[in-house]
Amino acid sequence: MLSFLLKLLVRGVPALLVLALFVWGFNWLMATRPVVEPEPGQPQIWPVTTVLAAVRDAAPSQIVYGTVRAAREADLRFGVAGEVSFVAEQMRDGVAVKKGAELARLDTVRYRLALEEVTAQIEGEMMNIAALERQTELRWRTLERTGKMVARKVASDAALDEAELGLSVTANQLDQARSRLAQLKVAERSRKQDLTDARLTAPFDGVLAGVGVALGQRVSNAAPVARLVDMGSLEVSFVVEAQTYARAAEMIGRPVDLIWRSGKAVVASSSATIARAEALVDKSEGGGRLYAELSADSLIPPGAFVEVVYVGQIFERVFELPEEALNGTDKVFAVIDGKASPRQVQLVTRRDGRIFVRGELQEGEQIIATRLPGLGDGTFVQSISSQEPS
Q: Who's near 361: CB < 8 A, 6+ residues apart?
């Protein structure tokens, strides 16, 4: 037992001394280590695009769409039915014709014979009327003489009655003859009108389209054989928003620009002038319809679907900014000392990627025009490009 204790002391004491020395050395190293002060973290700086705030009166243009058409078009048709006996050389699609030009004609033999028949009846009736007028005059004389004879007691009352009856019959025949003559003259005018209606003429200057008539063809007075388009009266109708339509009287006379595209390529452009407004509003259109007349030198044809660029309302003293500047519905941010500072605004309108606002903005402030997630008051920003106001 004693020997065991001696061995434990011989072996354990040095180990305890080593352990104590290690603990002391560790504590000394920890106590004398250099103190490293933590450096503050750098804030996140967001690159943004800015635009200079400038107040002004703005007249933004709007783009709507419409179809060009002629204000005056006419379906050409004969006034009577018949067989086509003449077609003018110019009776072709796309040919310009003058007012009164004869384009086609029907065979008029039957209509001329009908007119001659009525003319002969009129002549016969006029001769009959002349004879009846002579008879009436004689009947009057007979009645007067008979009346004098009855007064002198040399003729009976029966003779007077007979004279009156004869005058009445003849006068009635004369009235009937005159009535028949009037009817015949109406028929004569109708036959003459048939002859006129057998000729197809241009009612105004224009360009022919949809021509469908040929020599020898049987046509009726119900089906059109061509269409005449007045190229000098082209117009386009388009729908504007209700706020603009409410000021339609002010819009009359204002210019608009028309652009005819094929895909993205511009085929032709033209100017037009607002001439009138639709009297009734279609609730399904969400506004009102205006009509603009094209200039005389326009190269846009009827039927073309075009862009209509017009200026509607004029907004006084507003700030025009890119749409990306609007945060939510009523806030934009200005850059103040490298930080974002909120500004309350009222959205007046937006047009083609631009917004027009009024509010707490100050003229000359740099407004952030970049959408940033989590952008708020005090966010660090750096302008990498600055846009001038449009």
A: 53, 55, 319, 332, 334, 343, 345, 367
Domain range list for the chain: 49-59+315-387, 62-70+230-311, 108-197
Distance CA(111)–CA(195), nearest Å, equals 6
Residue 369 burial (CB count, 10 A): 21
> Same CATH topology for 49-59+315-387 and 62-70+230-311?
no
**49-59+315-387 maps to which CATH number?**
2.40.420.20
Q: Which fold has domain 62-70+230-311?
A: Elongation Factor Tu (Ef-tu); domain 3 (2.40.30)
Using a cut of 0.85, tell me whether the model's pTM lies above it.
Answer: no
pLDDT in tens, 286-316: 789 999 999 888 889 999 999 999 988 888 8
Q: What is the C-alpha separation between 254 and 274, in angstroms, rounded? A: 6
3-class SS of residue 266: strand
Within 10 angstroms of residue 40's Cβ, the number of other Cβ atoms is: 5
Which is nearest to 225 in space by CA: 78, 324, 83? 78
Question: How confident is the model over 157-179, as pLDDT tens digits?
Answer: 787 788 888 888 888 998 999 99
Spatial CB neighbours of 357, under 8 Å, sequence gap ≥ 6: 318, 319, 321, 326, 332, 345, 346, 347, 348
CATH class of 108-197: mainly alpha
